[in-house]
TrEMBL record:
Species whose genome carries this gene: Phaethon lepturus
Alphabetically ordered keywords of this record: Kinase, Metal-binding, Transferase, Zinc
PANTHER family linked to this entry: MPS ONE BINDER KINASE ACTIVATOR-LIKE MOB
Gene3D superfamilies tied to this protein: MOB kinase activator
Protein name as annotated: MOB kinase activator 1A
Ligand binding (Zn(2+)): 78, 83, 160, 165
InterPro entries, A to Z: MOB_kinase_act_fam, MOB_kinase_act_sf
Superkingdom classification of source: Eukaryota
GO molecular function: kinase activity
């Protein structure tokens, strides 16, 4: 019990806050307001006159927080024993590498993989040279490729939850929350072409279903 307790709290990262009063905070408020209208396709569009990098940065932080929270609700069901490999159904298995600490992809359990992944994402979001929070500080040239990698990896957490833990999500009555969060995420990455279609394959049917309901 103690082991799983300490592990799940480790995986559950602190929420990344966007400083109040900043332009990014205003953008986040705009995003929340348009989300409230219920039209997700419209909610993900770049607001007029806004910087694309900044819009992607704000939403990436928001998705990190959402996924962090969603995964946090099911950590007790996602254990070394129940999920010895990080997978999204029988056909898709993910091995972890971050290119710096772990250069060669390693096979690991889902909780370990997700801990690596969320820690890595948090490090990117906390890096002021990559995700500047101050007005007027330019985004680096490699910002878009970093953001794409973050979103590609965050998608894998959704894929794992849907394939391996959807019954737990149903029991917790969290499925509406999960579906809305995922739909928002997918519409966003589709709007700006941020994740390669091949990467989305584990949830392709669900993505098509969510999209067709919204046409």
């Amino acid at each position: 019990f103690l082991v799983s307790g300490s592990r799940s709290s480790k995986t559950f990262k602190p929420k990344k806050n966007i400083p109040e009063g900043s332009h990014q905070y205003e953008l986040l408020k705009h995003a929340e307001a348009t989300l409230g209208s219920g039209n997700l396709r419209q909610a993900v569009m770049l607001p007029e006159g806004e910087d694309l990098n900044e819009w992607i940065a704000v939403n990436t932080v928001d998705f990190f927080n959402q996924i962090n929270m969603l995964y946090g609700t099911i950590t007790e069901f996602c254990t070394e024993a129940s999920c010895p490999v990080m997978s999204a159904g029988p056909r898709y298995e993910y091995h972890w590498a971050d290119g710096t600490n772990i250069k060669k992809p390693i096979k690991c359990s889902a909780p370990k993989y997700i801990d690596y992944l969320m820690t890595w994402v948090q490090d990117q979001l906390d890096d002021e040279t990559l995700f500047p929070s101050k007005i007027g500080v330019p985004f680096p040239k490699n910002f878009m490729s970093v953001a794409k990698t973050i979103l590609k990896r965050l998608f894998r957490v959704y894929a794992h939850i849907y394939h391996q833990h959807f019954d737990s999500v149903m029991r917790l009555q969290e499925e509406a929350h999960l579906n809305t969060s995922f739909k928002h995420f997918i519409f966003f990455v589709q709007e700006f072409n941020l994740i390669d279609r091949r990467e989305l394959a584990p949830l392709q049917e669900l993505i098509e279903k969510l999209g067709s309901k919204d046409r």
